[in-house]
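A reminder before we start the practical. When you read a complex entry, don't treat the lines as separate problems. The point of joint prediction is that each chain is placed relative to the others, so the output describes one connected object in space. Small molecules and nucleic acid strands, if listed, are placed in the same frame. In the example below there are two entries. Take a minute to note the order of the lines before looking further.
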Amino acid sequence: MQNIIDDKNTLSTINSWVEEFSENMYSWALHKTSCKETAEDLVQETFLAAVQSFEKFEGKSKPKSWLYGILNNKIANHHRKNMKSPQISSTDNDLFFEGNGHWKWEQMPTNWQEGELHLLDNQDFKNTMQNCMEKLPTAWASAIQLKYLDEKKAEIICQELNLTVTNYWQILHRAKLQLRKCVDINWFKK
Amino acid sequence: MMNKLMLSCHKATELIEKESIVKLTLMEMMQLKAHKLLCSGCKAYEVQSKLLDGMLLKKLSESNDMVAKLNNPELKDKILEKISQL
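Here is the predicted structure of the whole assembly.
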């Protein structure tokens, strides 16, 4: 196998980027994927890709934007890949609904006090949200992330994923039921 | 007619999520409206689902410098080692 990095300068440049950017990139990837392992993998892959395509960098852009460009691509691909094999089982609904489709008594939503958008300025609440996102099955978390990731219309996202629109909102529905429940228990009804 | 209008809570909450990404048919709109008049649980669900939507949008569109910085020195070492093995 041909040695890709024969240039010592390349290595030392990339190593200095790892020192400077990797932790912030990890925070960013975690924010965008809600999964620690995934975030670590994507950042690693980003740097390995950077080593391999270093000659394309040529200093035309800032190292930071170049690296984040690669990382953001990998994040988007991760969500798309996840959504290609979404897992929905009919038992997911049994958690929330009776056989006839009505709320189980203890699962029926009741009003939230102080349910306001500015809650997000509260770091404790933000952590609760983040933890609840991390608890979702990965395909569901991806469904939610994709909804806000690009400004694209649902139809276009579904086309790309080879998914019917019906399938897509059904996954969103499962994800939202669970997320709502988690925020409900861990914040509003605590 | 009445039966046709009555949705289950499962179906109603599904339509609430559907509405957040695509347009509902006229029939679906009427069914959902009728259901929400009678069902406080689904009404609360809709309010909370929309609030979560707003929060997620706000949270996920935070720019890079607004994201809380986490330390991960092990990751740094892992990457450096991987690179040295290339």
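Discuss with your neighbour: Residues 2-84 of chain B form one domain. What might explain this?
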